[in-house]
Write a structure and sequence with these properties.
heterodimer; A: alpha/beta; Elongation Factor Tu (Ef-tu), domain 3; Rossmann fold; 2 domains; seven-stranded mixed sheet; five-stranded antiparallel sheet; 9 helices; 32% strand; B: alpha/beta; five-stranded parallel sheet; 34% helix; globular; binds flavin-adenine dinucleotide; binds iron/sulfur cluster; binds FE2/S2 (inorganic) cluster
Chain lengths: 273, 468
């Protein structure tokens, strides 16, 4: 049991949850995730460690409600416990001095990009963050990202905030303006990561993406999380979650993410009843 | 008159594919006694040496003849902390029973004394009595031992080291104990309550079990020894790395590793979906690739999840199948369709990325290979397609790399197995022992336990003498 310390809704669909996990808080590095189960009948779901504090003994998760388990998690209150929590899992982000690093966060993907922005900055990089959302309310964590970056660019699909357009438009603009980019780290919906990767491939800008495949154990035991990277099959939970965006087969990955669409709907409908 | 081997009553095949209850239902007292009388009580019993943990087989069988079941289970437990498990899943016909004098004299292993079934009987008898007797633990020594992984190897080490009065903590990556016994082997072959009960007994002895702890991530082995204050570490992390066939289409939806399929069904209880949350694909036509216990378990699980046609595709013939005879028979009775001497070459998908067919090629057997089995050779132009909605790849597991990858001081061989001394199970790193599947590659429960016993002895000795 890991005790919930705080919970706060950032948007109607997204909440931040602070959870007691002293050992994970000490060990976690940027880019790593946990797997949790809310109850004994529950599913194991992966969530990125969005923040943490070793002295305080807590980690923070930022979660978007998309189905049964995230909904059930959102209904837990401070002082209640999370049945199982395991981590830190996955390989940490490779942090070094690259020069100018662009962090691209789309929607809920902004949360996992936060510790990476922090670590890149701490390593001496100039960090520009591009935060994208469909509309103003979906651009989360702007303050925190601003604190971790040298500059922040906001894009919304509908133009309700920041620049109207997609995150790729913002990257394109930087390229057109002659801004030197040494590395792009893109985290968000697979379709966003795919188009960011296609764009940066054109300009030969190294690009890391963080994949969110379906997982079960998170220890490399089952292969549920496998993706094609280059001509190899990789397990996201142990070989990733970050990979060279130019080599990932995003189309295959997006199909695999939809494997349980019918069951997920059934589970959610049943829960809401 | 010669008494034939006593059969164990089983659930009817037509019924049992609609539930997950155990298939063989255990001996009655009468059946057990009749079977026990068949043992000749050999002076130099060859069966004992053929058991990896050297159970006093004539001894525990004699106690059954005498109706002294308490003594019988005590004899078993002297060397085997999981008799209820081994009695069910040991490949007995290749171990203890293979050498039995009764079987030899009748020139058939099938005629051997049914040692495994009797072992199960004694263990089940104890469970029916309620609480098990908790083994005595010696006075505290102040030494601490960390065990990584709660499979049969780790559980055995825990019991034997704890008995000597050392503090024992098991670190388990998953949220439940037992390793393959819980996540892999299905309920209908090994009820999970048996494993849970044995772990509770260990806890009563004072063994601490910490779940959700992935060693290599939360603590490295060095940290366990240097910062967390453990005096010795046992690594029993198993062979949990699923192998795939590396053929086109293997990442299509509906294609599972056996590990994933069985983990969803067993550990995550997907057979109760939507009462439980973890989904599993249910489909009419299922192909399973492989011929071992893991393939049989997958095929039989698919039947229980409502599949109509379950095809077991194996590239050699029936005699080469590594699965236990009993499991092959059970699978066949339940309606699994064997496609022998066939090998998948390609998986075909539909527009949504779901598997819809498997292209196989027919095989014939050539000369024996390194393993002594005849090598299968593809027959040219014999390809054909089986329509399927799910495929389960059960061609084997390699060693779990999490610990070796993060602990360079532990030497591994070219298959990624940890190298450990055969007698002491010492690794190349001081204070660290390893055993079970992580050393042997995918092997058996009882071999993992045999390793556990040897390792525990060596750990106890090391803790006492301090000499490496
Ligand atoms: C490494 C990693 C880090 C992630 N970090 C975050 C995060 O910080 N915040 C966040 O909101 N989400 C994150 N996700 C996604 C999150 O795991 C899913 O949203 C969650 O599992 C959905 O569960 P559900 O029951 O609510 O929804 P469901 O109705 O079960 O599924 C909704 C969608 O989530 C995906 N999904 C379903 N089950 C799983 C599973 N067991 N594992 C992974 N994905 C699944 C499917 O693609 C599905 O389409 C991360 C995923 C991965 C792999
Ligand atoms: C489906 C199936 C059917 C089988 N049927 C039979 C049978 O009928 N008879 C038979 O004798 N054998 C059978 N086997 C083989 C047998 O189960 C194994 O040989 C045996 O379980 C090995 O025991 P072990 O203790 O070495 O490892 P495992 O049982 O694999 O346990 C290892 C444990 O370590 C944990 N772990 C791994 N990495 C870490 C880490 N880094 N930190 C913490 N914990 C970790 C795992 O989660 C797991 O719980 C079968 C195997 C399978 C998969
Ligand atoms: S543990 Fe296995 S090999 Fe040993 S006696 Fe029992 S069934 Fe036979
Ligand atoms: S070899 Fe057979 S008959 Fe002899 S003691 Fe062992 S089980 Fe009994
Ligand atoms: S989630 Fe099972 S191997 Fe990655």
């Amino acid at each position: 049991m890991n005790k919930i310390l705080e919970k706060e809704f950032i948007t109607p669909e997204v909440f931040r949850m602070r959870v007691e996990a002293p050992e994970i808080a000490r060990k976690r590095k940027a880019g790593q995730f946990i797997i949790l189960r809310t109850c004994d009948e529950g599913e194991r779901i992966p969530l990125t460690i969005a923040d943490g504090n070793a002295d305080g003994g807590w980690i923070e998760l930022v979660v978007q409600i998309v189905g049964k388990t995230t909904k059930a998690l959102s209904e837990l209150e401070p002082d209640q416990g999370i049945c199982d929590l395991v981590g830190p899992l996955g390989r940490p982000t490779h942090i070094e001095l690259f020069g100018h690093v662009i962090i691209v966060g789309g929607g809920i993907g902004i949360a996992p990009s936060h510790p990476i922005a922090q670590a890149m900055k701490a390593a001496g990089n100039r960090v520009t963050s591009i935060l994208g959302g469909r509309t103003k309310d979906l651009v989360i964590m702007e303050d925190k990202m601003a604190a971790a970056s040298d500059a922040v660019v906001i894009t919304t699909d509908d133009g309700s905030y920041g620049m109207k357009g997609l995150v790729t438009d913002a990257i394109q603009k930087m390229v057109d303006d002659g801004v030197k980019i040494d590395l792009v780290v893109a985290i968000g919906p697979p379709i966003m990561m795919k188009f960011v990767s296609l764009l940066t491939m054109k300009y030969e800008i190294p690009t890391l993406v963080s994949l969110n495949t379906i997982m079960v154990d998170g220890t490399g035991m089952c292969g549920a999380c496998r993706v094609t990277v280059g001509d190899e099959t990789k397990f996201v939970c142990v070989d990733g979650p970050e990979f060279d965006g130019h080599k990932v087969d995003f189309d295959e990955m997006m199909k695999r993410q939809r494997m349980y669409e019918a069951e997920e709907k059934e589970s959610m409908d049943r829960y809401l009843k | 008159m010669q008494i034939p081997p006593q059969l164990m009553p089983e659930q009817d095949a037509r019924e049992r594919i609609h539930n997950v209850d155990e298939v063989p239902q255990g001996y009655t007292e009468e059946l057990a006694k009749t079977e026990a009388i068949r043992c000749l009580q050999c002076k130099k019993a060859p069966c004992v040496a053929a058991c990896p943990v050297e159970i006093d087989i004539p001894g525990f069988i004699k106690a059954i003849v005498d109706g002294d079941y308490r003594s019988s289970i005590n004899i078993l437990k002297e060397t085997n902390i999981l008799p209820a498990v081994c009695g069910r899943v040991c490949p007995q016909e290749e171990q203890c029973q293979r050498t039995c004098v009764v079987g030899k004299s009748r020139k058939s292993v099938e005629e051997a004394v049914q040692i495994g079934k009797l072992e199960r009987f004694a263990a089940d008898w104890e469970m029916e009595q309620g609480e098990a007797e908790v083994p005595e633990v010696k006075a505290a020594t102040g030494k601490k031992v960390a065990i990584v992984g709660s499979g049969p190897a780790g559980l055995t080490v825990a019991a034997d080291v704890r008995r000597e009065g050392h503090d024992v903590t098991i670190f388990e990556a998953l949220h439940k104990p037992g390793g393959v016994l819980i996540y892999g082997i299905p309920e209908f072959r090994l009820p999970k309550s048996i494993v849970m009960r044995e772990v509770e007994n260990l806890q009563k002895m004072g063994v601490e079990v910490k779940y959700n702890m992935v060693i290599g991530k939360i603590f490295s082995i060095e940290e366990l020894l240097e910062e967390e204050g453990y005096d010795a570490v046992f690594v029993g992390t198993g062979a949990g790395l699923p192998l795939f066939m590396r053929i086109p289409g293997e990442n299509l939806n509906g294609v599972y590793s056996a590990n994933e399929y069985l983990t969803r069904a067993n550990l995550m209880q997907a057979y109760s979906f939507p009462e439980t949350d973890t989904p599993i694909a249910r489909a009419k036509n299922v192909a399973v690739f492989g011929g071992g216990n893991v393939a049989m378990d997958s095929a039989r699980t698919a039947l229980r999840l409502g599949s109509e046609n379950v095809y077991l595709v194996y590239r050699r013939s029936r005699t080469e199948m590594p699965a236990r005879v009993e499991e092959v028979e059970h699978a066949e009775e339940e309606g699994v369709k064997f496609h022998l001497l066939q090998n998948p070459v390609r998986l075909l998908g539909d527009d949504n990325g779901w598997v819809k067919g498997v292209e196989c090629i027919k095989m014939e057997l050539g000369e024996p290979d390194d393993s002594g089995r005849r090598r299968p050779i593809p027959i040219k132009d014999s390809e054909f397609v089986i329509d399927v909605d799910i495929c389960i790849v059960a061609i084997g597991n390699a060693s779990n790399p999490l610990v070796p990858d993060t602990t360079p001081a532990i030497e591994t061989n070219r298959w990624g197995n940890i190298i450990a001394d055969e007698e002491t199970l010492k690794t190349s790193m001081k204070g660290v022992f390893a055993g079970g599947d992580i050393v042997l590659g995918a092997a058996t429960v009882i071999l993992a336990m045999g390793h556990g016993r040897k390792a525990a002895m060596a750990i106890n000795e090391y803790l006492e003498s301090g000499a490496w």
